[in-house]
Every structure is written in C-alpha cells, then in structure tokens.
Amino acid sequence: MLTYPEINPIAIELGPLKVHWYGIMYLLAFGTAWGLANYRAKKSSNNWDAQQVSDLIFFGAMGVILGGRCGYVLFYNFGQFLDDPLWLLRVWEGGMSFHGGLLGVALAIAYFCRKYKRSFFDVADFGVPFVPLGLMFGRIGNFIGGELWGRMADPAVVPWAMVFPHGGDVPRHPSQLYQAALEGFLLFVILWFYSSRPRPQKAVSAVFLMGYGIFRSFAEFFREPDAQIGFDAFGWMSRGQLLSLPMIIIGAILLVVAYRSPKTEEQKA
C-alpha cells in the first residue's frame, strides 16, 4: 500500500492571496490548449488565425466553467440547489461536471461558429484533440485535493492503493490517476495522431466522444460513486457511466456517418 502524498491544496500564499493547485491546473489546461491550438493552426489548411484561436479557447473556457458548474448542479446535486439556489453561484465550494462542461463547450462552439461563419464540426474537429490534456490536469487537481477517490481496494491485489484523508481509514484505488491516464493522456495521444492526417468531417469529434465515453465508463468501475447518488441503474451503473453512454452511441453514429458520406470534405484538424 502506498502513502497518500498529502499536498497542501494551496500552492502559493502571499498574505491574503491564496492560489490553489486546482486553479493552477485550470490555467495549465487552458494554456496548454492555447499552445497546441496555435501549433496546429499554423499547419492547418482551414485558415485559422491567432485571433480565432484565442477566441475559441476563451469561449471554450467560459463554456467549461459555466457548463461544468450548471451540469454538476443539474446532474449530481439538484436537491441542494432547490434547498439553496444561491449555492449555484458559490463555485469556490467545489462541484464541476465534465458532461455539463461538454454541453457548455458545445454552446460556446455554436456561438463561435456564428461569429466567424464556420461550420460546427469544422471547429469541433479542430478543437477536441486539445481537450484531453486539460482533463488530465483536472484529474491531477482532484488527486492533489484528495477528492473523488476510488473504491475500496485490497493492498495485496492493488499494491498502489492508498488511504485518502477524507475517504475513511480504508485503502482505495487512486481512481483520479486512472482517469488522468485514460481520459487524459491516452485519449490525447489517440486524438493527436488520428487528427494529424486528413479525416472526414465529424470523424475526429466522433472518436473523442467514443473514446472519452469508453474510458470514463471503465474508470468508473474503480471510482467511488457520489455519496448523494450511489448507483443509478442495475445496482452497478454510476451516474458518470449513465451520462457517458449517450456519448458512445452518438460518437459511433457520427463515425459511421462521417465515413459513409461521399460528399464529406476531408480536412486536417
């Protein structure tokens, strides 16, 4: 069994100014996306300029934050919102949802497309390869904060199991790191190389939806379900798996449509 590396959640403290690790992870996520997007824009044949890249990252960041918060309230803790509506605005108390953030980013892309007269999947296919590293940083932030820990594990079978500060006195899977590796790093590698060659429009977005949905569903088998929800269906399906299932189905349909459409314009994301 490993010892959980208790890290001060406050990375920098200068008088009244406190910078938390989770905030730094968000900055790394958006900064990395901006850098990778500018790198790809220079190699793209789809006329991406620096201003468009900056706007896309900014709109996407707003979609992540607003959508992630609203999604958490709607999907995971709607009862608390009904009891205390102002809780929605107290983002410093924690609570973000990837699936809500995904919907927020979709709306942000729609706004961006309207502003720059671009097609939705032209933008989505360009942008989704930069998302997984941001997810990786976010999960590392969860690990540092000692939150969203995994299910109980036998140290004899899982020698890297650890006791989390707020997870009781039993060893658990470090599921945040599983998610960082799968939904983050591995999905990034898959998307980066897949999108490095011309693909039919919608195909890159489809691979992202399927890849995330599959990896998230697998990792959920090791993650402790949210206490206020438990399991959603069949006595084993978590809320995260339930929300990821439509992503896998929609992604599969999009991939088939992308490769079957003879008039689909191939592009380099």
TrEMBL record:
Protein name: Phosphatidylglycerol--prolipoprotein diacylglyceryl transferase
Enzyme Commission no: 2.5.1.145
Annotated keywords: Cell membrane, Lipoprotein, Membrane, Transferase, Transmembrane, Transmembrane helix
Residues binding a 1,2-diacyl-sn-glycero-3-phospho-(1'-sn-glycerol): 139
Transmembrane segments: 20-41, 53-76, 96-114, 126-145, 177-194, 203-222, 242-259
Domain of life from the UniProt record: Bacteria
The keyword tRNA processing is annotated on this UniProt entry: no
Database matches in HAMAP family: Lgt
UniProt gene name: lgt
Enzyme class: transferase
Gene Ontology terms for molecular function: phosphatidylglycerol-prolipoprotein diacylglyceryl transferase activity
InterPro entries linked to this entry: Lgt (IPR001640)
Function recorded in the entry: Catalyzes the transfer of the diacylglyceryl group from phosphatidylglycerol to the sulfhydryl group of the N-terminal cysteine of a prolipoprotein, the first step in the formation of mature lipoproteins.
Source organism: Thalassolituus oleivorans MIL-1
GO cellular component terms listed in the entry, alphabetical order: plasma membrane
Pfam families: LGT
PROSITE patterns referenced in this protein's UniProt entry, alphabetically: LGT (PS01311)
One GO BP: lipoprotein biosynthetic process
Main location group: membrane
Membrane topology: Multi-pass membrane protein
